[in-house]
Amino acid sequence: QRRRQEKVVVVMGATGTGKSRLSVDLATRFYGEVINSDKMQVYKGLDVATNKSTAADRRGVPHHLLGIVDDPDAAFTAAEFVRRSSMAAEEISGRGRLPIIAGGSNSLVEALTVADRQFRSRYECCFLWVYVSAPVLHSVVSERVDRMVAGGLVEEAAEFFNPSGDYSRGIRRAIGVPELHEFFKNGPFVGGEAAGADLLEAAIVEIKENTCKLTRRQLGKIWRLREKLAGRRMHRLDATGVFLNRGGEAVEAWEKMVVGPSTRILARFLISEDEEEDAHSQPVTVDQAYILT
């Protein structure tokens, strides 16, 4: 008789779609804890640039693998993620709670849920994909970068300025640091305040462009991951309508379009021996033109 597998939830999606928000929503409903799967958020520092969840965002839900690497130049490999996340999932499950893996580094998710045989044999995964259409997501990303700049992105990125221009290792690879190099290097010396402002504006534009490119790469990886799941279903939750609303209407749309359907999917997943089809989840479709190959 096949040993009953323990349950794990995997929340996926491009940058800015609400993965972290959904992971906390589900954790509060299903006695869960969140395991971070964002390769930049494992480092200490750059909380604004890497968009780490604040204490208020986490709403008392324990988070694992968040800000655990002290050395900004250290390598954090997929193998290290598999080791640490497997330990976290075992510890969380051992206390009778639900591990919820959430983050934007889909290569790490694949290394754990597809490539690692030991994890696959022990855990049954429910994959939730928070999807937002490309034109809407690009607008969301642009607005979010503006909020990050207002929230101190430039000031915290200055602490990671490298005069040599090498941003190829560790947390310095995070979007928002390399793009500001010319501003930090030349801004104070290129003809006064106006010229410095032009360098800053150019850096902000580049941050927005690179973040949009990141969302396309993330979507491509999610699509390819779906093909590797070997029959395991990925549930798409279309959150596009959420970002077309404001204020209370956006909150209502989030509950209706994302939290409600995912709660029903997860409830059925947790009480079944094998994950069942859910009438409220949508078939996976994707704009192939939006994927970077």
Automatic annotation (TrEMBL):
Coiled coil: none annotated. InterPro entries: Dimethylallyltransferase, P-loop_NTPase. GO terms for cellular component: mitochondrion. It is an enzyme of class 2 (transferase). One of its GO terms (biological process) is tRNA modification. It catalyses: dimethylallyl diphosphate + ADP = N(6)-(dimethylallyl)adenosine 5'-diphosphate + diphosphate; dimethylallyl diphosphate + ATP = N(6)-(dimethylallyl)adenosine 5'-triphosphate + diphosphate. Its EC number is 2.5.1.112. Keywords: ATP-binding, Cytokinin biosynthesis, Nucleotide-binding, Transferase, Transit peptide. One of its GO terms (molecular function) is ATP/ADP dimethylallyltransferase activity. Gene3D superfamilies: Crystal structure of tRNA isopentenylpyrophosphate transferase (bh2366) domain (1.10.287.890), P-loop containing nucleotide triphosphate hydrolases (3.40.50.300). Belongs to the IPP transferase family. Involved in cytokinin biosynthesis. Catalyzes the transfer of an isopentenyl group from dimethylallyl diphosphate (DMAPP) to ATP and ADP. This is adenylate dimethylallyltransferase (ADP/ATP-dependent). It comes from Erythranthe guttata.
